[in-house]
Amino acid sequence: MKEKDIFGMAMKAYYFKKDKTPIIVHSPDFDDDEIAIEYLFRDFSEMPKTEQQALQLAYGTVLDVGCGAGSHALYLQRKNFKVKAIDTSAGAIAIAKERGVINADVKDFYAEHETYDTLLFLMNGTGIIGNLINTDNFLAICKEVLKPGGQILIDSSDLSFLEDEEEPNNDLDRKYIGEIDFCISYKGEKSNYFPWLYMDFELLKLAAEKNNFNCELIVEGKHYDYLAKLTIRND
To answer: Per residue in 82-138, pLDDT tens?
Structure first.
């Protein structure tokens, strides 16, 4: 069964009809939450400092992964960067093009074969990894599409603050707290569940070093979020 393009439907309704109906996020681990559609169309001044810093650190040719409505790509274009924006949502790519993104494509990052100086993974960029077990494969793909001297700019959040400190869980089989299963719905349409990974910085650094990357903490946000920069070690 073909997956419903929830984000695409919501972005088109907002862009063409000014419909602000939010996307609802569901998880068995948390109460339902909302994504305000207008936030996906934000400009630089409305972005959190992790995203602002990432855009200011970008250099060379840029791949904007999971570009959504194209807000990051548009900012970089205005700064005369050569940027390619990709997303698995056909509706999102259609809207990104409508807004002026020059090079936008419906594509999964894991199928990317061109090379870039900067790989941009924002709005919880580690989410694309899905589960911790996929981290090595993700970093291997990153190596393949990074030009010599290139960088990965990726953000995420540390969810350990959600753990109950009064009731420690010593179950070694318990999954990592940042491994979340989500599904999303919009106007009665609902997606399948999908895995999404929130990865704390220390865990990201360990994985990066294991895979021959340097990993630097660039900035921490107000909500347990952070931006990291990864570069391939030359030693």
So the answer is: 999 999 999 999 999 999 999 999 999 999 999 999 999 999 999 999 999 999 999
Selection from 113, 71, 76 nearest residue 92 by Cα: 71
In this structure, CATH architecture of domain 6-159+170-232: 3-Layer(aba) Sandwich (3.40)
> What tens digit of pLDDT does each residue of 34-52 get?
999 999 999 999 999 999 9
- Sheet with strand 213-220: strands edge to edge: 104-106, 83-87, 62-65, 116-121, 146-157, 225-232, 213-220
Token readout for 105 is 């494509």
3-state secondary structure of 23: strand
pTM, entire model: 0.94
Could you give the CA distance from residue 181 to residue 85 in angstroms, rounded to a whole number? Answer: 25
- Coil/strand/helix, residue 133: helix
